[in-house]
Design a protein that fits this description.
- The complex is a heterotrimer of chains A (187), B (652) and C (308).
- With 187 residues, chain A is mostly helical.
- Helix content of chain A is 54%, strand content 0%.
- The radius of gyration of chain A is 19 Å and the shape is globular.
- With 652 residues, chain B is α/β, with parallel strands linked by helices.
- Chain B is 29% helix and 25% strand.
- The chains are: A mainly alpha (187), B alpha/beta (652), C alpha/beta (308).
- Chains in contact: A-B, A-C, B-C.
- At the A-C interface, α6, α7, α8, α9 and α11 of A face α2, α3, α5 and α10 of C.
Chain lengths: 187, 652, 308
C-alpha cells in the first residue's frame, strides 16, 4: 500500500467539500457506523468511513478516483445513523459531483446509466425505460443486460416501445442546455 | 490614605501581553498611591513577602493587587495584608489576566486597559472601610442526599468522626447502582459482598438516621445552619412495625409488578422488599400494581401481616432537620436507549442493557445466577456487547464518555465465559478507555485469556431473524462490514445525571451543567466544593465515575464537611447589607426581594423599619439595588463605591 | 385542507410504464376515498436519482419545473405516489428558497419562480391525513383479514427525517396503520427501511440480488403472504427482479410484491383491472386465494352462528 505523505494534505479540497456539503468533516471520529450500515459497501473499493478519513487528510486524488462514489445508492442510511450528525450522504454526493466535473468519476457502467437516463429526459421531457436501456447497452456493450426481464415486462405491457414525450420538450431540454453552458455558475 | 499597588506578571500569562512594569509606573500618579511596583508571581511566597515589606516600609494602609481573578487568589492576598497588620477588607484586586491578558493580544491596548482597571480598584479602595467578621455557631449534623456507594462512604466517614448524619434515599433501599452489580472490575469481587457490610454499618451506626423512599423537599438557611425539609413518601407500610419478615410478599396476589431493583428482568409482587440484603429491610407497596389501589379491593397483605404494619391510608410525611453541611451524592441514571430504533427501541426481548445483564448474571438475581434469554429461557451461546450506546453521541445530545462502560463490558465478557464456557462473546467498541490501575491489563485478559472478540466499530442495525438477532456492524481495523448472529445483545448504555438533578440543584442553589451534572467549584482545585458554601459533591452526581473514584469522592466530601463543622464557631462574611435607619421609610421592598429571607420589619419608635439579620444575609446586594431611598447599603459595595468606580472608568 | 379540494397530482415517469399499476390503483383508491387528484399539466421528469448525483442545481431545476406548472394551475398542494419524486420535489422546494442554490437553479429554469405556500406530500400521507382508520375499515367491504403483510418502505420514504417527516425514520408506521385499518395482519418488519439496491439494478445487478434478496428472504422467514411496497423502484427490484434474485442466491421464492394501494383496493373491492393486478410479475393469486378462503371461512362461521 502506498504511503500517504501527510504534508501533501490538500486543504482547499477539504474546504471545498465542507462548503459544498455544508458539513464539518472534522467532526467524524471514525466510529465506522456509516460503513456498518452501508448497503453498497460490498461493491466499494473504499468503505465510506475511509472516504471520510481521506477527506480529513486532504487526499483529493484518492477520494475522487474511488469507485465508491459511483456505487453509492444515496439511501442515506449513513446520514441517518451518524452519531455526529454528519450528512455523510451529501458529502458523498459532493465528492461525486467533483469527480464528475473533473472527469474522474470511476465506474463506467454507472456513468453510462446516469448519462443514458438523463439523455431520455432531455430528449422527451420524461424518462423512458426502453430508451435508457437501449442507450446503456449501446454505450457499454452489455447487450445482454436484463434481457431476461424483457418477456415479463413486454407481456405485462410495462415497457412501452414509444416514449411518453411532453408538449414542452423544449423547456426541459433548455434546462440541460443552460446547465451545460454553465449558466448557473455565471455571476 | 497611603495606598500601595502591586502589578503581577503571572510569568508570561500577563507579562506577555501587558507591560506590568509600565502599569506600575503609571499607577504611581494615582491619588493617594505612595508606592507601586511589579512582581513576577505576586501570589508566591516572595511575592507575598514583597507586599508585606511594602506595607511596612511605606506605612501603607490599603493595597491593590492587579493579577488574576479574585476567585483564585483574593483570600491569599487578604491573608497577606492581614499578616502585615492591615484590615483584610482594605484590599482590592484588579483582574488583569482573565479580563485582559488572556482575551487580547494587543499589548498597548491591554496595558491601557490594565491601568484602567487599577485606577478603578484604587478609587474603590479609597472608599473602603475596615470590616470585621462575626462568628456564629453551626449545627454539627450533615445531610447526605443519596444512598449509593458514594453517599454511604460520606455518611460513614462523617459518622465515624462523631458528626451526626441524616441520609435520604429516593429508592426503598440504599446501595444504589452498586447493589445491582454482580461482580466488580478488575478483581471480579462480588459486589454485594463488599457493599453489604457498609450498608449494614449505615443501618446500625448510632450517628446515622436513614430515611428511605425520601426526597429533599426544600432548603433554607446557609452554611452551618441549613434547615431542610424531607418528604418521606407514603409506602403504605409502617416502618416502626414492619419486621421485614416477607410474609406479605409471599401472599401478594399481584405477582407481575415491575421489578425496579432487577431492572425489569423478571417480575415482583406489588408489595415487596426490593432484595434480600435491602437496607432498610422493610416492605413497600407499589401503588401502580397493588390491587387495593388499582381495583379498589384486595387487602391480602394487611390480613397476613403479623404486626399490623400495612396502612393503605398512609400519607407522605414532611420531616424538618437542621444541618450544618450537605453532601449531594445522587448518582446517575441510564440514558434512554430506546431512542435507538435501529437497535429495536425495546421491541426485542433479548436486546438488554448492561445493568439488566448484571441482574441476569447475579446469583441473587431473578435467574439464580444462570444466564438465560428473556424471550425463551434458553442459554445464549453467541453474546454481542455494544459499547457507547448513548455515550459519545452528539446526535442524541450525549457527547461525553461515560467512563466506566469499557471496563464493565470487559468484565461482563469474562463472566459470560465463566458462566457459559462454550459461549463466544463479541465486543463492538470505538476506543478502549481503561486508565485505572490494573484496568488495561483486565481488558487484555478478556481478549487473551477469555477469547473475547473485540471489534473496532459501531453497530448500525440489529434485527431479529428466526430466534436469533443479526447484528450488522463494522470492523474499521479490518476495513470491512461484519455481521454476526447473536442469541443475546447487551448494550453498554451510557450514563446521564439522575432524574430531576437540575431541580435538586436549584433547591441546593448549586450550579449544574447542560447535562444536569452538578458543577464543582473549580474543575481542578475544588472538585468537591460547590459555589454554595457548605454543599459538597460526591460520586456520579458530578459526572460519570467508577466505584473507587466514587468512594474516594465520598470520603473527600466527608473530609470537607468534617473540616467545616470541626470549628465550634463559623466566621460570617462581613460584606453584608446594612440599613441606615434614618433614611429607611419602611416600604418593605427589600424584604420582598431578599432571596434569603434575611431582612425583617421592626418597629422603631412607632415607625416600620427594615433590619438585616446578619447571620442570614449572603451579601447579594439585591436589596441595595431595590431600595428607593438608598437606605440599605451593601458593605464594601456601597453605592458611593460603585459610582466612584464608574466615574473613574468614565475619566479614562 | 378539505378532501374535496383537488391535489395537484404528479404521477412520475414510471407510472407511465413499469409502475402503471401503482398509478392506476392510486387513482382508484383515492377516487373511492373522495380524494380528488388533478394531474399537473404537461409534467416532466423530476430528474430522479441520476440528476442529483450529477448536480444539485440541475436536479432542483428539473423538479422545480413541475412546481412551476402546479402554480400556473393554481395547485399549491402537490402529491405524488413515488418516494423518489417526492424527495426530489421536496428538495427542490427547499433549494429554491436556499440563498446559494435557489438563484442558480432559477437561472437554469430560465428565470421561472415558484409561488409561495406549496406543500408536497406522498399519496400515502394524504390518505393517512385525510381518512380516518374507521373510514378505511368501513370502506373495506372485503377486509384483508388473515393476510400477513410485510410492510416495506425502502430507503427513501423516511430519510432524512427532517425532510421526509414520516415519524421515526427507522420505524415508520403509516403503511401499517392504513393496512391494519383494512384488516390485514401487518408483521413487524425489521428491514422495512433498508435499501433494495435502488437504481443499481442495471449497472450493478448484484446490488439488487443481494439487498433485495435479504428483504424477500426475511419476509418469507417471517411467514409473510405478501410484501407491501410504496416505491416503484423497490417494487421492480423485488418483483420483476425476483427471478434474478432467485438465480443469484439459489433460492426459490415466489413472494408476491404489491403496492399498498393495490391491497387497499382489494379491501375496498375495487375492480382488479383498475388495480392492475395483471401487471405483477410474481403471481398474486395465492394472496387472492387466501383472502377468498378467509371470506368463505368467515361466512361459514356466520352461517353456523345464524343457524344456532
Amino acid at each position: 500500500m502506498k504511503t500517504i505523505d501527510l504534508a501533501s494534505s490538500n486543504r482547499s479540497f477539504i474546504q471545498q467539500v465542507e462548503e459544498e456539503s455544508g458539513q464539518d468533516v472534522s467532526r467524524c471520529y471514525q466510529c465506522g457506523n456509516c460503513t456498518a450500515g452501508c448497503p453498497m459497501n460490498f461493491a466499494y473499493d473504499l468503505p465510506v468511513n475511509r472516504i471520510m478519513r481521506l477527506i480529513q487528510l486532504g487526499q483529493k486524488d484518492t477520494v475522487l478516483a474511488s469507485k465508491s462514489l459511483a456505487y453509492c445508492a444515496t439511501c442515506e442510511t449513513c446520514t441517518a445513523r451518524c452519531p455526529n450528525d454528519i450528512d455523510v450522504a451529501t458529502v458523498m454526493d459532493v465528492c461525486r459531483h467533483m469527480a464528475r466535473r473533473e472527469g474522474k468519476l470511476a465506474v463506467w457502467p454507472v456513468r453510462a446509466f446516469v448519462g443514458s437516463f438523463l439523455k431520455t429526459v432531455e430528449t422527451f421531457g420524461r424518462s423512458y425505460e426502453a430508451g435508457t436501456m437501449g442507450m446503456f447497452m449501446a454505450a457499454t456493450g452489455r447487450l445482454i443486460s436484463d434481457v431476461d426481464l424483457a418477456p415479463a415486462m413486454l407481456s405485462r405491457r410495462k415497457l412501452p416501445f414509444m416514449p411518453h414525450s411532453i408538449k414542452a420538450r423544449d423547456e426541459v431540454s433548455a434546462i440541460f442546455k443552460r446547465f451545460r453552458e454553465g449558466v448557473h455558475e455565471q455571476k | 490614605m497611603r495606598i500601595g499597588v502591586f502589578i503581577c506578571h503571572c510569568g508570561t500569562n500577563i507579562g506577555a501581553t501587558v507591560d506590568s512594569a509600565g502599569v506600575a509606573e503609571l499607577a504611581k500618579n494615582l491619588p493617594e498611591v505612595v508606592f507601586a511596583t511589579d512582581s513576577m508571581y505576586t501570589c508566591s511566597e516572595p511575592g507575598q513577602d514583597g507586599i508585606i515589606r511594602g506595607i511596612q516600609e511605606h506605612a501603607l494602609d490599603g493595597v491593590v493587587v492587579a493579577a488574576c481573578s479574585p476567585r483564585m487568589h483574593e483570600p491569599t492576598f487578604r491573608r497577606a495584608v492581614e499578616r502585615a497588620g492591615i484590615n483584610r477588607y482594605m484590599f482590592e484586586m484588579a483582574n488583569i489576566r482573565e479580563h485582559v491578558s488572556w482575551i487580547g493580544k494587543d499589548k498597548e491596548a491591554n496595558t491601557n486597559k490594565a491601568f484602567e482597571l487599577v485606577r478603578i480598584a484604587v478609587e474603590k479602595l479609597r472608599r473602603d472601610r475596615p470590616l470585621t467578621p462575626k462568628y456564629f455557631p453551626s449545627t454539627k449534623r450533615v445531610l447526605v442526599i443519596g444512598g449509593g456507594v458514594a453517599g454511604i462512604q460520606a455518611a460513614l466517614d462523617c459518622a465515624d468522626a462523631g458528626i451526626e448524619v441524616v441520609m435520604i434515599e429516593r429508592e426503598p433501599s440504599i446501595g444504589g447502582k452498586m447493589a445491582k452489580l454482580d461482580k466488580t472490575f478488575p478483581t471480579v469481587d462480588c459486589s454485594s459482598c463488599i457493599l453489604g457490610p457498609k450498608m449494614v454499618d449505615v443501618a446500625q451506626h448510632p450517628k446515622i438516621t436513614l430515611h428511605a423512599c425520601s426526597e429533599l423537599e426544600s432548603v433554607s438557611g446557609f452554611v452551618g445552619n441549613f434547615e431542610v425539609v424531607i418528604r418521606k413518601k407514603a409506602t403504605c407500610v409502617d416502618n416502626t412495625k414492619c419486621t421485614g419478615c416477607g410474609l406479605c410478599t409471599e401472599k401478594c396476589p399481584s405477582k407481575k409488578s415491575f421489578d425496579r431493583f432487577n431492572e425489569g428482568v423478571g417480575a415482583t409482587t406489588a408489595i415487596n422488599i426490593p432484595f434480600p440484603q435491602a437496607i432498610p429491610k422493610k416492605a413497600v407497596i407499589d401503588k401502580s400494581f397493588c390491587r387495593q389501589f388499582v381495583k379498589g379491593k384486595c387487602g391480602v397483605c394487611a390480613k397476613v401481616c403479623p404486626t399490623g404494619a400495612i396502612d393503605y391510608e398512609q400519607q407522605d410525611e414532611l420531616v424538618t432537620v437542621q444541618v450544618g453541611a450537605m453532601v449531594a451524592a445522587t448518582g446517575y441514571d441510564l440514558v434512554d436507549w430506546k431512542v435507538y430504533s435501529e437497535y429495536g427501541a425495546g421491541r426485542y426481548p433479548d436486546v438488554v442493557t448492561s445493568l439488566q445483564y448484571e441482574r441476569m448474571m447475579s446469583a441473587s438475581g431473578p435467574f439464580g445466577g444462570h444466564i438465560k434469554r428473556l424471550s425463551d429461557g434458553k442459554e445464549p451461546k453467541n453474546v454481542v456487547f455494544i459499547q457507547c450506546v448513548g455515550s459519545r453521541d452528539v446526535s442524541i445530545g450525549r457527547p461525553y464518555c461515560s467512563g466506566f462502560c469499557c471496563m464493565y463490558t470487559a468484565k461482563q465478557a469474562i463472566l459470560t465465559k465463566d458462566h457459559i464456557p462454550d459461549s463466544q462473546s463479541y465486543v463492538f467498541y470505538m476506543d478502549i478507555r481503561s486508565p485505572g490501575k490494573g484496568y488495561d491489563e483486565f481488558t487484555r485478559r478478556a481478549q487473551e485469556e477469555y477469547g473475547t472478540q473485540y471489534i473496532r466499530g459501531r453497530v448500525s442495525l440489529i434485527y431479529p431473524k428466526g430466534d436469533r438477532y443479526v447484528v450488522r456492524g463494522v470492523d474499521t481495523l479490518a476495513g470491512a462490514q461484519v455481521e454476526v448472529e447473536a442469541d443475546l445483545v447487551v448494550l453498554a448504555v451510557g450514563v446521564e445525571a439522575a432524574a430531576n438533578s437540575p431541580q435538586l440543584a436549584e433547591k441546593l442553589r448549586i450550579s449544574y451543567d447542560k447535562f444536569g451534572f452538578f458543577m464543582e467549584s473549580h474543575v481542578k482545585l475544588k472538585p468537591i466544593e460547590t459555589n454554595t458554601a457548605g454543599v459538597f459533591l460526591a460520586g456520579c452526581s458530578q459526572g460519570p465515575k467508577d466505584i473507587p473514584s466514587s468512594v474516594a469522592m465520598g470520603s473527600a466530601a466527608a473530609a470537607k464537611a468534617i473540616g467545616l463543622l470541626s470549628k465550634d464557631m463559623l466566621e460570617s462574611d462581613p460584606q453584608i447589607a446594612q440599613v441606615n435607619i434614618n433614611r429607611c421609610v419602611g416600604c418593605a421592598k427589600c424584604i420582598n426581594v431578599c432571596p434569603y429571607k434575611a431582612i425583617r420589619e421592626i418597629d422603631f419608635r412607632g415607625q416600620p423599619k427594615a433590619e438585616v439579620i446578619e447571620a442570614v444575609c449572603q451579601g447579594c446586594g439585591l436589596c441595595n439595588a431595590t431600595c428607593p431611598q438608598g437606605a440599605i447599603q451593601l458593605s464594601h459595595f456601597t453605592d458611593n463605591q460603585i459610582l466612584a468606580e464608574v466615574e473613574a472608568l468614565c475619566r479614562c | 385542507m378539505s378532501r374535496n379540494e383537488p391535489f395537484g397530482y404528479y404521477p412520475g415517469c414510471s407510472g407511465q410504464g413499469t409502475s402503471a399499476e401503482y398509478d392506476s390503483s392510486t387513482r382508484a383508491v383515492c377516487a373511492e376515498l373522495g380524494i380528488v387528484l388533478q394531474d399537473l399539466d404537461d409534467w416532466s421528469c423530476c430528474g430522479s436519482t441520476p440528476a442529483h448525483t450529477v448536480d444539485h442545481c440541475l436536479s432542483t431545476a428539473l423538479s422545480a419545473r413541475n412546481l412551476v406548472q402546479a402554480g400556473k394551475q393554481g395547485l399549491l398542494d402537490v402529491t405524488t405516489p413515488c418516494p423518489s419524486c417526492l424527495k426530489n420535489l421536496r428538495v427542490a422546494l427547499r433549494n429554491m428558497s436556499d440563498e446559494h442554490i435557489g438563484p442558480r437553479a432559477a437561472k437554469l429554469l430560465g428565470g421561472e419562480t415558484l409561488k409561495e405556500g406549496h406543500t408536497i406530500k406522498s399519496v400515502m400521507e394524504v390518505i393517512h391525513d385525510q381518512v380516518s382508520a374507521e373510514e378505511i375499515a368501513a370502506k373495506s367491504m372485503r377486509p384483508l383479514t388473515g393476510l400477513k403483510v410485510a410492510p416495506y418502505y425502502g430507503c427513501l420514504m423516511s430519510r432524512p427525517q427532517e425532510l421526509m417527516q414520516l415519524g421515526d425514520p427507522e420505524n415508520p408506521m403509516v403503511m401499517e396503520e392504513l393496512l391494519t385499518a383494512a384488516g390485514a395482519e401487518v408483521l413487524p418488519f425489521p428491514l422495512k427501511v433498508e435499501c433494495c439496491g435502488a437504481s443499481m439494478g442495471i449497472p450493478l445487478n448484484e446490488a439488487v440480488t443481494r439487498l433485495s434478496g435479504k428483504i424477500v428472504d426475511l419476509a418469507a422467514s417471517l411467514g409473510a403472504d405478501v410484501i407491501a411496497v410504496a416505491c416503484p423502484l423497490c417494487q421492480m427490484n423485488l418483483d420483476l427482479r425476483q427471478g434474478q434474485i432467485n438465480r443469484a442466491n439459489k433460492t426459490h421464492f415466489k413472494m408476491p410484491v404489491m403496492y399498498y394501494t393495490q391491497l387497499l383496493g382489494l379491501a375496498f373491492a375495487l375492480p382488479h383491472n383498475e388495480l392492475g393486478l395483471d401487471k405483477l410479475v410474481v403471481d398474486p393469486q395465492p394472496v387472492l386465494n387466501k383472502l377468498a378462503d378467509q371470506r368463505r371461512g368467515a361466512a361459514k362461521v356466520e352461517q353456523t352462528e345464524g343457524a344456532a
